[in-house]
């Protein structure tokens, strides 16, 4: 129940590090927000429900952005919610613009910043052609990297810039919140001479960064794997590789593999049920055009990082405060 | 002559009222001119030309002194000179202008018998000689009708001739008559004359008949100052000219020519009748310079507007006019316009104008006038509307620009204050009740127009159009039940959607029948904005103009609207019918979102979201200066009902940016408090925990120590017992 690291830290710091404080604060905040209504059905009930929803990842639905990005678990939950809600859009085969994806994000989080969506789109489109259409899966995986590792990527961008300009990265103190620095692209002349930076050097710096970094970063081993395949690479090349790396996706644990992206039998079933409810509709729904194009290649995987909802509800043991998302996926 | 030509349409139909008077200076009691022969148009009565001439030249039986039956001799007063014609005894003893044809035929043929056309020494000109008997009998007149003449014969010794008739010959040139200086009447009807000439010496000529020739130009009439009747019908004349000196001319016939317009008529001070039928006249000028003109015949021309003949309205003498066969006569306004503008008229198109007609005309004209004024007013309004819309559009553009460049633009404040200045113009509105008295055709056109500088509110039939954000204030006004009930379409232009959202509850109350919403230039950028529309009572149609609404560029927007507003069962989106497939697609795309939103949202959050929505509505309503509580309650019930209807969608709502930011601020405050509170709690808890842990650590040692002390104390039994006893006794 309690991990041994607990003893290495003072209690307060430990709780803070594990974001327990965040959730406790938020729970109280929510309680304050609706105290009349909640007191009607019981404070204890509320707290149970709150921490249950945190475990299930449904606590981020329609919440403000500051809360959604507050913890890695929230981020992962949001990614997953986004995937679940709009999987159907991707399934329909529509290619959408950055702005349209942004609108979808805003349906779940009304104040989702455009900047993040833009950055994610930049990973997919590799350039400033921001009006281009993207497929759902491309966007989703790029968005995952950008959103989940947002602070890490900022630092990486800074390191990349330093490497490009020839500074010795080991002497550089990496700014952790140097927003927007990576936008200063290498000038054209530099880029044409030698594009990108040397992979091994880059990795050294990143390894160093991962050690020190207080925000979540991808597992160094996987970063090494990504970087070992190439001699040189550019910043966006790196991001694309990260977003396409399925090990990282697995480690992050919010989304299924790319192949299973369109697959969610529980919700598909639910959708069929909803479709059947449309007034004045006959049985044409089940024989709809999409029934045939359902990707039927993979059976539901048992080891999926996310259990279906009803499973999670049975496990109550996790509601006692260890809400870190890695705990959850390990049990 | 016209009779011979067989042109029945050359004159007005029979039954025409005779002129009331014949000019006194010219009373002729001569019955027959040979060419006036209605005989050849049987059953047709006299044609117009014949009658016209007869009327001029013949004094009808009106005068009791000169009754036709007794009249044997007729007086022909030509100016100062008075001439008497002696007529053939066989001249009918009745005023049988209509019935005399048989006699005339006899007469003319007989006369012809007595004439000898002797070839002269010059081969081209025959010389005419009459027998002396003949001369005595018809000393004043000579008829050379149908003699197949190709030239005018030389007429010798006939200087007294007053009347000369060359009808129906082939004469190409007028000549050899310059010696007949006493000639009064010259008839050259139906010849082949190409130019008017050879008349300069005939100063006393009063009647000149040149109908049915080939004349192209009116000319060489300079000396014919006493001309009374000039007949040039059936020629090829294109222009009225060289007639201005004919101050005695009373009748001018230019029918069947090639005139394209009428002007240059000044100087014709005696003209009473002008025949211009069958030309190609498009406009008439100068007629008001004819002081005596009474009859004007413009039938079968090309007149299409009243403006082209408006000078007729200025003529005071005109009493009889025809326009039939012109485009103008086809117009609905024709009759009353003419009657209204020409009060002096007695006959129009051969029909006597009755009082009733005149009254009708004035009524119609009044109406017309009113209509014109109204349409003018409307066009003014339209122009004003256009200007205002332009103004609003400019303001909107500025605003949009400002929003995008808010960081760099410093003059935002200035224009803001400007907005306020111009906004306080009072709004005027006209409700249909006020305009109800107007023409029924107008009420549908434009019922109410409310106008200020920065915004525009317009009710047009069933459409309420709002331009500019200020227009939203109109929803606070008290609309009449009738107007409010009639409005089914509400269109928003140049208004920030977020501002519209705030008035939606009001809209719902004030215009309960609004089914069709139109948005143009309203800054619709996000799908979630459509959530706001869900709170309305009913929406059948939605039109979102791509202009100023980027959301329309999204491929998903229509489906999202269908999904989110599915409880309205919408009929049309942007003019296209919603199909079943669209509905399925919408559900397919977003059904899961709704499902997740409803089934997975934790209860506490659901409450807070729905509570927010309710609160928000409540607040919008409160902002409308505290309406009656009843309405608010009803509103509350409404939203509850709505929640019941589509719970799984109700969580997808939209809060305007301002409202949302406000809420975030609020949350921030609470968060601050919670953070402190939790921090304190946790610190306290960890402290207790620490103490507890310390105690846990110390406790075994403490216990051991305690036990050891106790053991040590009781090691010496006796001394311990003694001690105990001592204590007991001490206590006592």
UniProtKB/TrEMBL annotation, chain A:
Residues 318-331 have a biased composition (Acidic residues). One of its GO terms (cellular component) is centriolar satellite. It is found in: Cytoplasm, Cytoskeleton, Microtubule organizing center, Centrosome, Centriolar satellite. Its main location: cytoplasm. Residues 295-331 are annotated as: Disordered. The keyword Cytoplasm applies. Keywords: Cytoplasm, Cytoskeleton, Microtubule, Phosphoprotein. Belongs to the CSTPP1 family. PANTHER family: CENTRIOLAR SATELLITE-ASSOCIATED TUBULIN POLYGLUTAMYLASE COMPLEX REGULATOR 1, UPF0705 PROTEIN C11ORF49. Interacts with PCM1. Interacts with TTLL1, TPGS1, TPGS2 and LRRC49; the interactions link CSTPP1 to the complex TPGC. Binds to alpha-tubulin. Regulator of the tubulin polyglutamylase complex (TPGC) that controls cytoskeletal organization, nuclear shape, and cilium disassembly by balancing microtubule and actin assembly. Regulates the assembly and stability of the TPGC and thereby modulates polyglutamylation of the microtubule, which antagonizes MAP4 binding. This is Centriolar satellite-associated tubulin polyglutamylase complex regulator 1. It comes from Tursiops truncatus (Atlantic bottle-nosed dolphin).
């Amino acid at each position: 129940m309690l991990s041994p690291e607990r003893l290495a830290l003072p209690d307060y710091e430990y709780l803070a590090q594990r974001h327990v404080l965040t959730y406790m604060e938020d729970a109280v905040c929510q309680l304050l927000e609706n105290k009349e209504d909640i007191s009607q059905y019981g404070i204890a009930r509320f707290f149970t429900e709150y921490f249950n929803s945190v475990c299930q990842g449904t606590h981020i639905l329609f919440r403000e952005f500051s809360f959604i990005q507050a913890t890695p678990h929230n981020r992962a939950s949001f990614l997953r919610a986004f995937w679940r809600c709009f999987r159907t859009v991707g399934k329909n085969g529509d290619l959408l613009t950055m702005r349209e994806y942004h609108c979808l994000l805003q349906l779940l989080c009304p104040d989702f910043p455009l900047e993040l969506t833009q950055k994610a789109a930049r990973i997919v489109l590799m350039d400033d052609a921001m009006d281009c259409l993207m497929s759902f899966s491309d966007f989703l995986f790029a968005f995952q990297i950008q959103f989940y590792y947002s602070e890490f990527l900022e630092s990486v961008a800074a390191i990349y810039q330093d490497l490009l300009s020839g500074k010795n990265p080991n002497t550089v103190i990496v700014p952790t919140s140097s927003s927007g620095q990576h936008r200063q692209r290498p000038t054209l002349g530099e880029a044409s001479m030698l594009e990108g930076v040397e992979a091994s050097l880059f990795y050294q710096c990143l390894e160093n960064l991962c050690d020190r970094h207080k925000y979540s970063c991808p597992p160094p081993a996987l970063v090494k794997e990504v970087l070992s395949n190439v001699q040189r690479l550019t910043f966006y090349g790196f991001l694309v590789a990260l977003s396409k790396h399925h090990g990282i996706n697995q480690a992050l644990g919010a989304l299924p593999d790319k192949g299973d992206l369109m697959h969610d039998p529980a919700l598909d079933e639910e959708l069929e049920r909803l479709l059947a409810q449309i007034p004045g509709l006959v049985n044409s729904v089940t024989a709809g055009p999409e029934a045939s194009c359902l990707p039927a290649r993979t059976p539901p995987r048992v080891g999926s990082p996310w259990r279906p909802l009803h499973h999670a509800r049975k496990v109550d043991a996790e509601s006692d405060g260890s809400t870190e998302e890695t705990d959850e996926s390990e049990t | 002559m016209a009779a011979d030509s067989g042109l029945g349409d050359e004159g007005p139909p029979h039954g025409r009222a005779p002129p009331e008077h014949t000019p006194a200076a010219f009373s002729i009691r001569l019955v027959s001119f040979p060419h006036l022969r209605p005989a050849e148009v049987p059953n047709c009565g006299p044609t117009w030309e014949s009658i016209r001439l007869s009327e001029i030249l013949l004094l009808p039986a009106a005068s009791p002194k000169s009754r036709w039956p007794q009249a044997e001799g007729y007086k022909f007063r030509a100016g100062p000179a008075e001439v008497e014609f002696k007529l053939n005894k066989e001249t009918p003893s009745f005023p049988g202008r209509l019935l005399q044809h048989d006699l005339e035929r006899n007469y003319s043929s007989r006369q012809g018998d007595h004439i000898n056309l002797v070839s002269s020494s010059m081969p081209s000109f025959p010389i005419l000689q009459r027998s002396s008997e003949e001369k005595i009998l018809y000393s004043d007149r000579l008829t050379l009708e149908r003699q197949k003449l190709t030239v005018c014969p030389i007429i010798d010794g006939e200087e007294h001739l007053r009347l000369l008739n060359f009808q129906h010959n082939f004469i190409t040139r007028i000549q050899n008559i310059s010696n007949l200086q006493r000639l009064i009447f010259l008839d050259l009807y139906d010849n082949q004359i190409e130019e008017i000439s050879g008349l300069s010496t005939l100063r006393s000529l009063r009647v000149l008949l040149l109908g049915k020739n080939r004349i192209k130009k009116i000319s060489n009439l300079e000396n014919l100052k006493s001309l009374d009747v000039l007949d040039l019908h059936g020629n090829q004349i294109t222009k009225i000219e060289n007639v201005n000196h004919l101050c005695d001319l009373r009748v001018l016939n230019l029918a069947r020519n090639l005139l394209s317009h009428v002007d240059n008529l000044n100087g014709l001070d005696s003209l009473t009748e002008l025949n211009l039928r069958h030309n190609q006249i498009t406009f008439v000028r100068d007629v008001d310079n004819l002081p005596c003109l009474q009859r004007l015949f413009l039938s079968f021309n090309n007149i299409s507007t009243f403006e082209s003949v408006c000078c007729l309205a200025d003529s005071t003498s005109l009493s009889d006019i025809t326009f039939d066969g012109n485009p103008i006569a086809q117009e609905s306004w024709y009759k009353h316009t003419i009657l209204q503008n020409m009060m002096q008229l007695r006959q129009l198109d051969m029909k006597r104008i009755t009082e009733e007609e005149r009254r009708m005309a004035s009524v119609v004209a009044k109406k017309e006038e009113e209509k014109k004024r109204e349409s003018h007013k409307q066009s003014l309004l339209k122009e004003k509307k256009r200007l205002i819309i332009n103004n609003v559009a400019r303001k909107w553009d500025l605003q949009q620009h400002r929003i995008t460049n808010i960081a760099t633009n410093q003059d935002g404040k200035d224009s803001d204050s400007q907005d306020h200045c111009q906004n306080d113009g009072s709004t005027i509105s006209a409700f249909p009740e006020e305009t109800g008295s107007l023409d029924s055709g107008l009420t549908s056109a434009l019922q109410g127009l409310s106008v200020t500088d920065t915004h525009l509110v317009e009710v047009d039939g069933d459409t309420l159009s709002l331009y500019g954000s200020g227009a939203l204030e109109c929803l606070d006004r008290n609309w009449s039940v009738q107007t409010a009930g009639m409005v089914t379409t509400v269109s928003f232009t140049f208004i920030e959607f977020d501002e519209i959202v705030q008035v939606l509850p009001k809209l719902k109350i004030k215009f309960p029948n609004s089914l069709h919403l139109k948005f143009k230039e309203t800054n619709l950028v996000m799908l979630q904005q459509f959530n706001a529309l869900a709170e309305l009572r009913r929406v059948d149609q939605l039109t979102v103009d791509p202009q100023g609404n980027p959301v329309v560029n999204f491929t998903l927007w229509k489906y999202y609207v269908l999904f989110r507003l599915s409880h309205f069962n919408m009929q049309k989106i942007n003019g296209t019918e919603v199909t079943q497939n669209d509905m399925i697609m919408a559900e397919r795309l977003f059904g899961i979102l709704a499902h997740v939103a409803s089934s997975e949202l934790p209860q506490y959050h659901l409450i807070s979201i729905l509570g927010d929505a309710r609160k928000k509505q409540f607040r919008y309503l409160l902002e409308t200066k505290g309406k009656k509580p009843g309405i608010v309650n009803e509103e509350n019930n409404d939203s509850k009902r709505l929640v019941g209807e589509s719970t799984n969608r109700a969580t997808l709502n939209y809060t305007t940016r301002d409202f949302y930011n406000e809420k975030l601020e609020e949350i921030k405050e609470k968060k601050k408090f919670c953070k402190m509170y939790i921090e304190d709690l946790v610190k306290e808890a960890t402290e207790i925990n620490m103490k507890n842990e310390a105690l846990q650590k110390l406790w075994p040692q403490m216990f051991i120590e305690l036990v050891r002390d106790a053991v040590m104390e009781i090691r010496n039994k006796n001394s311990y017992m003694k001690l105990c006893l001592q204590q007991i006794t001490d206590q006592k």
